[in-house]
Design a protein that fits this description.
By secondary structure, the chain is an alpha/beta fold. Helices cover 39% and strands 20% of the residues. The chain is built from 14 helices and 16 strands. Helix 1 links the parallel strand 1 and strand 2. Helix 2 runs antiparallel to helix 3, helix 2 packs antiparallel against helix 5 and helix 8 packs parallel to helix 10. The longest helix has 20 residues. The model has no long low-confidence stretch (mean pLDDT 94). The protein binds aspartic acid. The site of aspartic acid has 13 residues, from helix 8.
Protein backbone atom coordinates (compact mmCIF):
# COMPACT_ATOMS: atom_id res chain seq x y z
CA UNK A 1 0.00 0.00 0.00
CA UNK A 2 1.22 3.50 -0.83
CA UNK A 3 2.03 5.73 2.10
CA UNK A 4 0.77 9.27 1.65
CA UNK A 5 0.95 12.33 3.84
CA UNK A 6 -1.92 14.73 3.26
CA UNK A 7 -1.86 18.35 4.36
CA UNK A 8 -5.01 20.48 4.28
CA UNK A 9 -4.90 24.27 4.26
CA UNK A 10 -7.12 26.61 6.26
CA UNK A 11 -9.78 27.14 3.60
CA UNK A 12 -10.12 23.36 3.26
CA UNK A 13 -11.02 23.20 6.96
CA UNK A 14 -12.93 26.42 7.50
CA UNK A 15 -16.33 24.80 8.19
CA UNK A 16 -18.07 21.49 8.81
CA UNK A 17 -18.93 21.35 5.12
CA UNK A 18 -15.24 21.66 4.21
CA UNK A 19 -14.33 19.03 6.81
CA UNK A 20 -16.75 16.63 5.12
CA UNK A 21 -15.03 17.11 1.78
CA UNK A 22 -11.71 16.44 3.48
CA UNK A 23 -13.10 13.33 5.17
CA UNK A 24 -14.31 11.99 1.84
CA UNK A 25 -10.93 12.63 0.24
CA UNK A 26 -9.08 10.81 3.01
CA UNK A 27 -11.43 7.83 3.09
CA UNK A 28 -11.25 7.42 -0.64
CA UNK A 29 -7.62 6.31 -0.51
CA UNK A 30 -6.29 3.84 2.05
CA UNK A 31 -2.82 5.26 1.57
CA UNK A 32 -3.75 8.63 3.08
CA UNK A 33 -2.54 7.67 6.52
CA UNK A 34 -0.93 10.78 7.95
CA UNK A 35 -2.92 14.00 8.05
CA UNK A 36 -1.59 17.48 8.74
CA UNK A 37 -4.28 20.15 9.23
CA UNK A 38 -3.98 23.94 9.28
CA UNK A 39 -6.20 26.07 11.51
CA UNK A 40 -9.67 26.91 10.17
CA UNK A 41 -9.32 29.63 7.54
CA UNK A 42 -11.78 32.01 5.95
CA UNK A 43 -15.30 30.72 5.26
CA UNK A 44 -16.12 33.63 2.98
CA UNK A 45 -14.55 36.84 1.69
CA UNK A 46 -14.01 39.19 4.56
CA UNK A 47 -14.01 36.40 7.19
CA UNK A 48 -11.09 36.14 9.64
CA UNK A 49 -8.74 33.16 9.89
CA UNK A 50 -8.67 31.53 13.32
CA UNK A 51 -4.89 32.11 13.44
CA UNK A 52 -5.47 35.86 13.11
CA UNK A 53 -8.23 35.74 15.73
CA UNK A 54 -5.77 34.06 18.07
CA UNK A 55 -3.07 36.66 17.48
CA UNK A 56 -5.63 39.38 18.17
CA UNK A 57 -6.98 37.71 21.27
CA UNK A 58 -3.52 37.15 22.69
CA UNK A 59 -2.58 40.78 22.11
CA UNK A 60 -5.52 41.76 24.29
CA UNK A 61 -4.39 39.33 26.98
CA UNK A 62 -0.89 40.73 26.84
CA UNK A 63 -2.16 44.26 27.26
CA UNK A 64 -4.11 43.13 30.30
CA UNK A 65 -7.44 43.71 28.55
CA UNK A 66 -10.47 41.45 28.90
CA UNK A 67 -10.13 38.82 26.16
CA UNK A 68 -12.98 36.52 27.18
CA UNK A 69 -15.29 37.62 24.36
CA UNK A 70 -12.54 37.28 21.76
CA UNK A 71 -11.74 33.78 22.99
CA UNK A 72 -15.41 32.85 23.03
CA UNK A 73 -15.65 33.79 19.34
CA UNK A 74 -12.76 31.46 18.56
CA UNK A 75 -14.42 28.68 20.49
CA UNK A 76 -17.57 29.28 18.48
CA UNK A 77 -15.67 28.62 15.26
CA UNK A 78 -14.73 25.14 16.50
CA UNK A 79 -18.13 24.47 18.03
CA UNK A 80 -19.75 25.21 14.69
CA UNK A 81 -17.54 22.58 13.07
CA UNK A 82 -18.05 20.02 15.84
CA UNK A 83 -21.84 20.45 15.77
CA UNK A 84 -21.95 20.45 11.99
CA UNK A 85 -20.12 17.12 11.94
CA UNK A 86 -22.34 15.71 14.67
CA UNK A 87 -19.41 14.92 16.96
CA UNK A 88 -19.78 14.71 20.71
CA UNK A 89 -16.32 16.11 21.38
CA UNK A 90 -16.04 18.87 24.01
CA UNK A 91 -13.24 21.41 23.90
CA UNK A 92 -14.20 22.95 27.21
CA UNK A 93 -11.13 21.72 29.08
CA UNK A 94 -8.86 22.77 26.25
CA UNK A 95 -10.25 26.30 26.18
CA UNK A 96 -9.94 26.54 29.94
CA UNK A 97 -6.24 25.66 29.65
CA UNK A 98 -5.78 28.14 26.83
CA UNK A 99 -7.46 30.90 28.84
CA UNK A 100 -5.13 30.26 31.78
CA UNK A 101 -2.06 30.18 29.59
CA UNK A 102 -3.08 33.43 27.90
CA UNK A 103 -3.42 35.03 31.31
CA UNK A 104 0.01 33.77 32.22
CA UNK A 105 1.32 35.19 28.94
CA UNK A 106 2.48 31.94 27.44
CA UNK A 107 3.63 33.78 24.30
CA UNK A 108 2.39 34.73 20.87
CA UNK A 109 3.64 31.52 19.26
CA UNK A 110 1.79 29.42 21.77
CA UNK A 111 -1.35 31.44 21.10
CA UNK A 112 -1.14 31.14 17.30
CA UNK A 113 -0.37 27.42 17.46
CA UNK A 114 -3.65 26.64 19.22
CA UNK A 115 -5.48 27.05 15.91
CA UNK A 116 -3.78 23.98 14.46
CA UNK A 117 -3.68 22.14 17.78
CA UNK A 118 -7.44 22.31 18.29
CA UNK A 119 -8.19 21.61 14.66
CA UNK A 120 -5.99 18.53 14.92
CA UNK A 121 -8.02 17.27 17.86
CA UNK A 122 -11.27 17.79 15.96
CA UNK A 123 -9.85 16.15 12.84
CA UNK A 124 -8.54 13.12 14.74
CA UNK A 125 -11.93 12.65 16.38
CA UNK A 126 -13.74 12.99 13.08
CA UNK A 127 -11.51 10.52 11.26
CA UNK A 128 -10.93 8.12 14.14
CA UNK A 129 -7.16 8.65 13.77
CA UNK A 130 -4.66 9.03 16.58
CA UNK A 131 -3.81 12.62 17.59
CA UNK A 132 -0.10 13.41 17.95
CA UNK A 133 0.76 16.85 19.37
CA UNK A 134 3.33 18.52 17.12
CA UNK A 135 5.13 19.82 20.23
CA UNK A 136 6.23 16.22 20.89
CA UNK A 137 7.64 15.56 17.47
CA UNK A 138 8.78 18.82 15.83
CA UNK A 139 11.93 20.22 17.46
CA UNK A 140 13.48 23.68 17.29
CA UNK A 141 16.98 24.47 18.59
CA UNK A 142 17.96 27.18 21.11
CA UNK A 143 18.10 29.75 18.33
CA UNK A 144 14.56 28.98 17.23
CA UNK A 145 15.61 27.20 14.06
CA UNK A 146 14.17 23.86 13.08
CA UNK A 147 16.29 20.97 14.34
CA UNK A 148 15.89 18.80 11.26
CA UNK A 149 17.78 15.73 12.45
CA UNK A 150 16.09 15.55 15.85
CA UNK A 151 12.67 16.16 14.30
CA UNK A 152 13.21 13.45 11.71
CA UNK A 153 14.13 10.93 14.38
CA UNK A 154 11.33 11.80 16.82
CA UNK A 155 8.70 12.04 14.12
CA UNK A 156 9.84 8.84 12.46
CA UNK A 157 9.76 6.85 15.69
CA UNK A 158 6.41 8.24 16.79
CA UNK A 159 4.74 7.77 13.41
CA UNK A 160 6.03 4.22 13.29
CA UNK A 161 3.85 3.47 16.29
CA UNK A 162 0.70 4.75 14.59
CA UNK A 163 -1.01 3.20 11.67
CA UNK A 164 -2.90 6.44 11.06
CA UNK A 165 -2.37 9.79 12.72
CA UNK A 166 -3.18 13.48 12.71
CA UNK A 167 -0.29 15.87 13.39
CA UNK A 168 -1.27 19.55 13.58
CA UNK A 169 0.74 21.85 11.35
CA UNK A 170 2.59 25.12 11.95
CA UNK A 171 4.36 24.53 15.28
CA UNK A 172 6.75 22.49 17.37
CA UNK A 173 8.66 22.97 20.61
CA UNK A 174 11.87 24.60 21.77
CA UNK A 175 14.36 22.61 23.89
CA UNK A 176 12.72 24.05 27.04
CA UNK A 177 9.33 22.76 25.91
CA UNK A 178 7.81 26.12 24.98
CA UNK A 179 5.83 26.24 21.76
CA UNK A 180 7.39 27.78 18.66
CA UNK A 181 5.71 28.31 15.30
CA UNK A 182 7.10 28.43 11.79
CA UNK A 183 6.47 31.58 9.76
CA UNK A 184 2.96 32.12 8.37
CA UNK A 185 1.76 29.37 6.11
CA UNK A 186 4.11 27.00 7.92
CA UNK A 187 1.79 23.99 8.06
CA UNK A 188 3.19 23.14 4.65
CA UNK A 189 6.56 22.63 6.35
CA UNK A 190 5.08 20.28 8.96
CA UNK A 191 3.52 18.24 6.19
CA UNK A 192 6.80 17.96 4.39
CA UNK A 193 8.65 16.97 7.58
CA UNK A 194 6.12 14.23 8.26
CA UNK A 195 6.42 13.01 4.67
CA UNK A 196 10.19 12.83 5.00
CA UNK A 197 10.09 11.11 8.39
CA UNK A 198 7.72 8.34 7.29
CA UNK A 199 9.41 7.97 3.88
CA UNK A 200 6.13 8.71 2.18
CA UNK A 201 5.57 7.83 -1.45
CA UNK A 202 3.76 11.10 -1.96
CA UNK A 203 3.06 14.35 -0.13
CA UNK A 204 -0.34 15.73 -1.06
CA UNK A 205 -0.86 19.39 -0.32
CA UNK A 206 -4.58 20.20 -0.51
CA UNK A 207 -5.60 23.80 -0.92
CA UNK A 208 -8.23 25.85 -2.75
CA UNK A 209 -6.61 25.97 -6.17
CA UNK A 210 -6.09 23.10 -8.58
CA UNK A 211 -2.32 23.42 -8.50
CA UNK A 212 0.12 25.87 -9.95
CA UNK A 213 -1.23 28.05 -12.68
CA UNK A 214 0.98 28.89 -15.62
CA UNK A 215 0.68 32.54 -14.76
CA UNK A 216 -1.12 34.98 -12.50
CA UNK A 217 -4.91 34.71 -12.98
CA UNK A 218 -5.21 38.43 -12.27
CA UNK A 219 -3.25 39.05 -15.45
CA UNK A 220 -4.42 36.23 -17.72
CA UNK A 221 -7.96 34.97 -17.43
CA UNK A 222 -8.19 31.29 -16.55
CA UNK A 223 -4.59 30.30 -17.15
CA UNK A 224 -3.77 26.65 -17.76
CA UNK A 225 -2.71 24.54 -14.74
CA UNK A 226 0.84 23.21 -14.79
CA UNK A 227 0.66 19.43 -14.66
CA UNK A 228 4.31 18.72 -13.76
CA UNK A 229 6.92 21.15 -12.53
CA UNK A 230 10.42 20.54 -11.17
CA UNK A 231 11.60 21.92 -7.83
CA UNK A 232 14.01 24.23 -9.62
CA UNK A 233 11.38 25.62 -11.94
CA UNK A 234 9.11 26.18 -9.01
CA UNK A 235 11.78 28.02 -7.13
CA UNK A 236 12.23 30.37 -10.08
CA UNK A 237 8.51 31.01 -10.34
CA UNK A 238 7.96 31.37 -6.60
CA UNK A 239 10.75 33.88 -6.42
CA UNK A 240 8.91 35.89 -9.02
CA UNK A 241 5.68 36.02 -7.12
CA UNK A 242 3.78 32.76 -7.54
CA UNK A 243 3.21 31.11 -4.18
CA UNK A 244 1.09 28.11 -3.47
CA UNK A 245 3.48 26.36 -1.12
CA UNK A 246 5.72 27.62 1.69
CA UNK A 247 9.26 27.80 0.35
CA UNK A 248 10.79 25.93 3.27
CA UNK A 249 8.49 22.99 2.61
CA UNK A 250 10.53 21.98 -0.37
CA UNK A 251 13.92 21.29 1.13
CA UNK A 252 13.09 18.22 3.27
CA UNK A 253 11.32 16.56 0.36
CA UNK A 254 13.96 17.35 -2.19
CA UNK A 255 16.51 15.58 -0.04
CA UNK A 256 14.41 12.42 -0.19
CA UNK A 257 13.09 12.74 -3.71
CA UNK A 258 9.49 12.68 -2.51
CA UNK A 259 7.11 14.26 -5.01
CA UNK A 260 4.48 16.81 -3.98
CA UNK A 261 1.02 16.86 -5.45
CA UNK A 262 -0.84 20.15 -5.03
CA UNK A 263 -4.59 19.45 -5.10
CA UNK A 264 -7.88 21.31 -4.74
CA UNK A 265 -10.20 20.21 -1.91
CA UNK A 266 -13.14 21.76 -3.74
CA UNK A 267 -12.31 19.97 -6.99
CA UNK A 268 -10.85 16.60 -6.00
CA UNK A 269 -11.42 15.33 -9.53
CA UNK A 270 -8.64 17.64 -10.79
CA UNK A 271 -5.20 15.98 -10.89
CA UNK A 272 -3.49 19.16 -9.67
CA UNK A 273 0.22 19.83 -10.09
CA UNK A 274 3.02 17.34 -9.48
CA UNK A 275 6.22 18.90 -8.15
CA UNK A 276 9.19 16.60 -8.72
CA UNK A 277 12.98 16.59 -8.52
CA UNK A 278 13.39 15.72 -12.15
CA UNK A 279 11.28 14.24 -14.87
CA UNK A 280 11.49 13.08 -18.41
CA UNK A 281 7.83 13.98 -18.74
CA UNK A 282 7.87 16.28 -21.72
CA UNK A 283 6.05 19.50 -20.95
CA UNK A 284 3.03 20.15 -23.14
CA UNK A 285 4.20 23.68 -23.86
CA UNK A 286 7.76 24.87 -24.37
CA UNK A 287 7.49 26.98 -21.25
CA UNK A 288 6.33 25.83 -17.84
CA UNK A 289 5.24 29.16 -16.43
CA UNK A 290 5.53 32.92 -16.46
CA UNK A 291 6.18 34.83 -13.25
CA UNK A 292 6.90 38.45 -12.63
CA UNK A 293 7.14 41.34 -10.24
CA UNK A 294 6.83 45.08 -10.50
CA UNK A 295 8.66 47.73 -8.58
CA UNK A 296 12.29 47.59 -9.61
CA UNK A 297 14.77 50.36 -10.24
CA UNK A 298 17.91 50.23 -12.33
CA UNK A 299 21.17 52.06 -11.81
CA UNK A 300 23.35 52.25 -14.90
CA UNK A 301 26.97 53.23 -14.48
CA UNK A 302 28.86 54.42 -17.51
CA UNK A 303 32.59 54.81 -17.69
CA UNK A 304 34.91 54.81 -20.66
CA UNK A 305 37.29 51.84 -20.70
CA UNK A 306 35.42 50.19 -17.83
CA UNK A 307 35.94 46.82 -19.45
CA UNK A 308 39.67 46.94 -18.83
CA UNK A 309 39.36 48.03 -15.22
CA UNK A 310 39.81 44.93 -13.12
CA UNK A 311 37.53 44.77 -10.10
CA UNK A 312 35.05 47.31 -11.45
CA UNK A 313 32.00 45.10 -10.94
CA UNK A 314 33.06 44.12 -7.47
CA UNK A 315 33.56 47.73 -6.41
CA UNK A 316 30.12 48.65 -7.73
CA UNK A 317 28.41 45.76 -6.00
CA UNK A 318 30.26 46.47 -2.79
CA UNK A 319 28.55 49.85 -2.62
CA UNK A 320 25.19 48.09 -2.75
CA UNK A 321 26.30 45.60 -0.16
CA UNK A 322 27.48 48.32 2.20
CA UNK A 323 24.07 49.92 1.95
CA UNK A 324 22.34 46.66 2.76
CA UNK A 325 20.80 46.30 -0.70
CA UNK A 326 20.57 43.01 -2.50
CA UNK A 327 20.69 43.16 -6.27
CA UNK A 328 18.55 41.19 -8.68
CA UNK A 329 20.37 41.37 -11.99
CA UNK A 330 23.46 42.98 -13.41
CA UNK A 331 23.31 43.22 -17.18
CA UNK A 332 26.40 44.86 -18.63
CA UNK A 333 27.78 46.36 -21.82
CA UNK A 334 31.30 47.26 -22.85
CA UNK A 335 31.33 50.52 -20.94
CA UNK A 336 28.13 50.20 -18.92
CA UNK A 337 27.15 48.18 -15.94
CA UNK A 338 23.57 48.11 -14.70
CA UNK A 339 22.25 46.96 -11.36
CA UNK A 340 18.61 46.07 -10.79
CA UNK A 341 17.30 46.53 -7.24
CA UNK A 342 13.95 46.66 -5.46
CA UNK A 343 12.74 50.20 -5.85
CA UNK A 344 11.19 50.53 -2.39
CA UNK A 345 14.43 49.47 -0.69
CA UNK A 346 16.58 51.59 -2.98
CA UNK A 347 14.62 54.83 -2.68
CA UNK A 348 15.56 55.30 0.96
CA UNK A 349 19.24 54.89 0.20
CA UNK A 350 19.46 56.44 -3.23
CA UNK A 351 21.73 59.36 -2.43
CA UNK A 352 24.11 57.30 -0.29
CA UNK A 353 24.43 54.77 -3.09
CA UNK A 354 25.14 57.42 -5.71
CA UNK A 355 27.74 59.08 -3.53
CA UNK A 356 29.24 55.69 -2.77
CA UNK A 357 29.48 54.85 -6.47
CA UNK A 358 31.20 58.14 -7.26
CA UNK A 359 33.73 57.46 -4.58
CA UNK A 360 34.26 53.83 -5.51
CA UNK A 361 34.56 53.94 -9.31
CA UNK A 362 34.53 57.59 -10.48
CA UNK A 363 31.95 56.98 -13.22
CA UNK A 364 31.38 59.27 -16.21
CA UNK A 365 27.64 59.03 -15.74
CA UNK A 366 25.09 57.39 -13.51
CA UNK A 367 21.62 56.94 -14.90
CA UNK A 368 18.64 55.95 -12.80
CA UNK A 369 15.40 54.47 -13.96
CA UNK A 370 12.42 53.46 -11.86
CA UNK A 371 9.02 51.74 -12.21
CA UNK A 372 10.46 48.70 -13.93
CA UNK A 373 9.12 45.18 -13.89
CA UNK A 374 10.87 41.85 -14.27
CA UNK A 375 9.22 38.93 -15.99
CA UNK A 376 10.56 35.39 -15.73
CA UNK A 377 9.75 32.91 -18.46
CA UNK A 378 10.58 29.54 -16.94
CA UNK A 379 10.74 26.10 -18.45
CA UNK A 380 12.89 22.99 -18.58
CA UNK A 381 11.58 22.54 -22.10
CA UNK A 382 13.44 25.62 -23.31
CA UNK A 383 16.79 23.92 -23.12
CA UNK A 384 16.19 21.69 -26.07
CA UNK A 385 14.14 24.08 -28.11
CA UNK A 386 15.52 26.50 -30.60
CA UNK A 387 13.86 29.84 -31.15
CA UNK A 388 12.26 30.30 -27.73
CA UNK A 389 13.87 33.68 -27.19
CA UNK A 390 12.98 34.65 -30.73
CA UNK A 391 9.33 33.84 -30.15
CA UNK A 392 9.24 35.75 -26.88
CA UNK A 393 10.71 38.90 -28.36
CA UNK A 394 8.63 38.74 -31.53
CA UNK A 395 5.51 38.49 -29.35
CA UNK A 396 6.63 41.45 -27.27
CA UNK A 397 7.38 43.52 -30.34
CA UNK A 398 3.93 42.77 -31.74
CA UNK A 399 2.40 43.89 -28.47
CA UNK A 400 4.43 47.15 -28.66
CA UNK A 401 6.34 46.34 -25.50
CA UNK A 402 9.78 47.86 -25.24
CA UNK A 403 12.29 45.43 -23.72
CA UNK A 404 14.74 47.11 -21.36
CA UNK A 405 16.78 44.12 -20.28
CA UNK A 406 17.30 40.47 -21.14
CA UNK A 407 19.01 37.90 -18.97
CA UNK A 408 19.10 34.22 -19.82
CA UNK A 409 20.54 32.09 -17.05
CA UNK A 410 23.17 29.67 -18.29
CA UNK A 411 20.99 26.81 -17.05
CA UNK A 412 18.64 27.78 -19.88
CA UNK A 413 15.85 27.25 -17.41
CA UNK A 414 14.63 30.82 -17.53
CA UNK A 415 14.74 34.05 -19.45
CA UNK A 416 14.31 37.23 -17.43
CA UNK A 417 12.95 40.26 -19.22
CA UNK A 418 12.90 43.81 -17.89
CA UNK A 419 10.06 46.07 -19.03
CA UNK A 420 8.36 49.19 -17.74
CA UNK A 421 5.77 48.62 -15.01
CA UNK A 422 3.00 49.82 -17.30
CA UNK A 423 3.85 47.16 -19.90
CA UNK A 424 3.91 44.35 -17.36
CA UNK A 425 0.44 42.87 -17.98
CA UNK A 426 0.60 43.33 -21.74
CA UNK A 427 3.95 41.59 -21.86
CA UNK A 428 2.80 38.59 -19.82
CA UNK A 429 -0.33 38.21 -21.91
CA UNK A 430 1.67 38.39 -25.13
CA UNK A 431 4.07 35.66 -23.96
CA UNK A 432 1.24 33.50 -22.68
CA UNK A 433 -0.63 33.86 -25.95
CA UNK A 434 2.27 32.86 -28.13
CA UNK A 435 3.22 29.75 -26.13
CA UNK A 436 -0.12 28.59 -24.78
CA UNK A 437 -3.15 30.07 -26.50
CA UNK A 438 -1.59 29.59 -29.94
CA UNK A 439 -1.01 25.90 -29.11
CA UNK A 440 -4.42 25.06 -27.66
N1 LIG B 1 -2.52 28.82 10.27
C1 LIG B 1 -1.22 29.34 9.96
C2 LIG B 1 -1.35 30.59 9.13
O1 LIG B 1 -2.43 31.11 8.97
C3 LIG B 1 -0.34 28.31 9.32
C4 LIG B 1 -0.87 27.68 8.06
O2 LIG B 1 -2.06 27.76 7.79
O3 LIG B 1 -0.08 27.05 7.37
O4 LIG B 1 -0.37 31.10 8.68
Amino acid sequence: MMKKVVKFGGSSLASAEQFRKVGAIIREDEGRRYVVPSAPGKRFDGDTKVTDMLYGCYRMAEQGRDFKEALRKIRERYQEIIDGLGLSLSLEQEFETIRKNFEEKAGEDYAASRGEYLNGIVMAEYLGYEFVDAAEVIAFDENGRLDGAKTDKMLGERMNQCDRAVVPGFYGAMPDGSVKTFSRGGSDITGSLVAKAVHADLYENWTDVSGFLMTDPRVVENPVTISTITYREMRELSYMGATVLHEDAIFPLRQEGIPINVRNTNRPQDPGTMIVESTCNKPKYTITGIGGKKGFASITIEKAMMNSEIGFGRKVLQVFEENGLSFEHTPSGIDTFTVYVHQAEFEEKEQQVIAGLHRAVQPDLIELESDLALIAVVGRGMRRTRGTAGRIFAALAHAHVNVKMIDQGSSELNIIIGVENRDFETAIRAIYDIFVVAQL
